[in-house]
Structure prediction request, 263 residues.
Amino acid sequence: MAWATSTATGVKVAILDTGIDLDHPDLGANVKGGINTINPRKEPDDDNGHGSHVAGIVAAVRGNGIGVIGVGPSASLYAVKVLGASGSGYASDIIEGLDWCIQNGIKVVNMSFGASSDNQSIHDAVIRAYNAGIIMVAAAGNSGPGSDTVSYPAKYNEVIAVAATDSNDAVAPWSSRGPEVDIAAPGVNIYSTYKNAGYATMSGTSMAAPHVTGAIALKLQVNPLLSPDAMRSLVVGTAEPILGAPEEVGAGLIDAEALVNAQ
Prediction:
């Protein structure tokens, strides 16, 4: 229903992750650039699968008759490879990736990764991106059901933290909890693109975050001047109420149509 108004055309979305399968027939047309901060001499190609899965949720191609369709199917994807084949990485590579996003006019950054401890250097980079007007979305983490289990960078005030729900709109038992959770989105058994031109079903708040990133990209086509704070207010204000405490689901379930049409 949101696509009647917006398909996120021209909105620059960076996937800070393990890279993107640059030759994937369901992604390639939307990948407009990127960087490999681990090895800048190499392409930001995905040697893990996680980043391609996240990218497909945001912006798998629409109308090509194959695979899946992303939330914002006309968004411009940027592969910012900050995590290696194992799915882990160094703070320095994440910082370099965020600074690249600032220098290259990225509007939305998806960060489907997390750490249990604060890193001031990463927080400083997040603040720089925030001050540059970049909207950042991050996975809350998969350390639930304990309280106060939201991971960094989702825990930072400058970042929109996303919890995971299942097909019944119930919070996933493993989804991290805490007062930092802003919004919830589907994160259980999500089918999306994968490395080597493949597809896979995966679960995690890593899958929930790009649903929100894609919805934000839809809104930015309509109003490209929204600040990070204004966007957070709209995301939260248009959420669909669902069962669950605020520390579990935030304001509720992301509602792309309501977000796109909100004034």
Observations:
- Residues 2-261 form a domain with the Rossmann fold fold (CATH 3.40.50.200).
- The radius of gyration is 16 Å.
